[in-house]
Amino acid sequence: MLDHLVYATPDLGRTVDDLAERGITLSPGGPHPGLGTRNHLAALGENAFLEVIGPDPEQPEPATRRPFGIDELTAPRLVTWAIQVPDLDAALDRARAAGHEPGDVVPMSRRRPDSVLLTWRLAFPPDDRGGLVPFVIGWGDTPHPSHTAATGTRLVSLRGEHPDPASLVPVFAALDTELAVTEAAEPALVAEFATASGKVVLK
User: Fold this and answer.
1) Which domains does the chain have, with CATH numbers?
2) Which of 14, 21, 60 is nearest to 37 (CA)?
3) CA–CA gap between residue 133 and residue 23 (Å, rounded)
4) Which of 36, 51, 132, 184 is the most exposed place for a label (fewest CB within 10 A)?
């Protein structure tokens, strides 16, 4: 099932302010130590959330490039999405057996503003087809971020665009997930949200 959407930006503070003006209220998530990033979150209902992630000015420059292509961005972009599974290792084994390489497991952690430590494990696919193939995440016993994220935003729809939609069908099947994808010149994710201020579309 959908875990979260990743909206990456080269300027986190400016993007958080812009989204707030458009009706999406976000709460501070926390820094990702060593990666040079931090995030803000909005709960979307049904244990899902929107993650807005960008450079953390309070961290030194990371030894490697920031995730989600943040260092190359010139404007905010909906870069990818994640699906949540109860047993990460079993889900990855099933995907490989079905012909999809979901990537290797990476352990992650961050502290919430109230000092609660969150830990999780995820796997990024080597080829995410322009962000349309989700990465897989397992939260284990850690509190899910959606439970403490800012409320007031609801996900209405999520869809994709890709030059070859048919090529994605077996990948989604291997991951036991679905995404409506229409043909377009460039890959893109498109999400529509309902807020108290009206509709917001991020791409």
Assistant:
1) 2-154 (3.10.180.10)
2) 60
3) 28
4) 184
